[in-house]
Design goal:
Number of helices: 8
Largest sheet: 2 strands, antiparallel
Strand order of the largest sheet: 1-2
Protein name: Fungal-type protein kinase domain-containing protein
Distance between the termini: 39 Å
Shape: globular
InterPro entries: Pkinase_fungal
Radius of gyration: 20 Å
Pfam family, one: Pkinase_fungal
Helix content: 40-55%
Number of strands: 6
Order of helices and strands: EHEHHEEHHHHHEE
Length: 273
């Protein structure tokens, strides 16, 4: 007997086939939430987070907690330099070591994924030419040298300069909203990475778990806030387009329409955030 259509798993698309910045961020949000659940239950680290392991549910851009959005790595999979954490790169360069990966390494990789699409794409399906990719991304995303990649990432996460000027996101992909997201996520990572570096003796599992939950929630909150901003921008754009294509409205009609559009901008799939 064939499974009913309602019980069938939804089809998925690769992350690079996103249709809008909201859909891109929603898929990454759900993958991080998926990772949080796994790490909280058994301390499991993924180790190979990249655009190839994050999935988009094709039928809906909204969150579905019953579906796994983060693919498990296969035994033969190898990390992609651009998305590897600093600790993972150290293992690539120096060989196996006793230095363990933890949740922060995977969140670091999620940050690199967001930066890759925000700064490396002009709009969905259109990657920027390598010559047009901002230096803040190119320094670690376009090199094939693990040493150079690691050095650039160390400068970003541990260097004295905390403002990397993520000001090259195309307007189609969110402009200032994505730029602010990158800066906020980098700030979270820098704080946690410095804490981990100075934590002696090493944190116990319970301490690590407590710290991880706060960091996960910080990441998820930043991403959700950015999606709300993008939804509001889209709603305002549609409102102005409607106004331009119709007869002049009475002031009270215009105000009511703007309020209605702003209210619906904070809803996704009928679920308020």
């Amino acid at each position: 007997m064939h499974a009913s259509h309602s019980n069938a798993l939804p089809p998925f698309r690769k992350l690079e086939l996103f249709h809008s910045p909201q859909e891109l961020l929603m898929a990454i949000h759900d993958a991080i939430a998926d990772h949080q659940t796994r790490y909280g239950s058994c301390g499991r680290v993924h180790g190979l987070v990249s655009p190839d392991t994050i999935l988009i549910e094709s039928q809906s851009p909204t969150s579905n907690r019953q579906v796994k959005y983060l693919k498990d790595p296969l035994p033969h999979d190898r990390g992609i330099l651009a998305f590897q954490s600093i600790t993972s790169l150290q293992k690539t360069i120096c060989g196996p070591s006793d230095l363990p990966l933890d949740y922060l390494d995977d969140l670091e990789s999620f940050f690199y994924v967001i930066a890759w699409f925000a700064l490396g794409y002009s709009y969905p399906g259109k990657r920027r030419n390598n010559n047009d990719i901002p230096a803040v991304l190119a320094s670690w995303a376009l090199t094939s040298d693990p040493q150079q990649c690691m050095h650039a990432k160390k400068e970003m996460l541990y260097g004295k300069n905390g403002d990397f000027g993520f000001n090259n996101v195309s307007q189609y992909l969110g402009g200032y909203a994505l730029e602010e997201l990158l800066q906020n996520l980098l700030g979270l990572l820098r704080t946690r990475c410095h804490e981990r570096l100075s934590s002696k003796p090493a944190m116990t599992w319970q301490q690590m778990l407590k710290a991880s939950q706060a960091t996960y929630e910080g990441f998820l909150a930043c991403i959700k806030r950015t999606i709300r901003v993008l939804d509001e921008k889209e709603s305002n754009r549609l409102t102005h387009k409607m106004i331009a294509s119709h007869e002049p409205l009475y002031p009270q009609d215009l105000k009511a329409m703007q309020q209605r559009n702003m209210a619906t901008a904070y809803q996704r799939g009928g679920q308020n955030w």
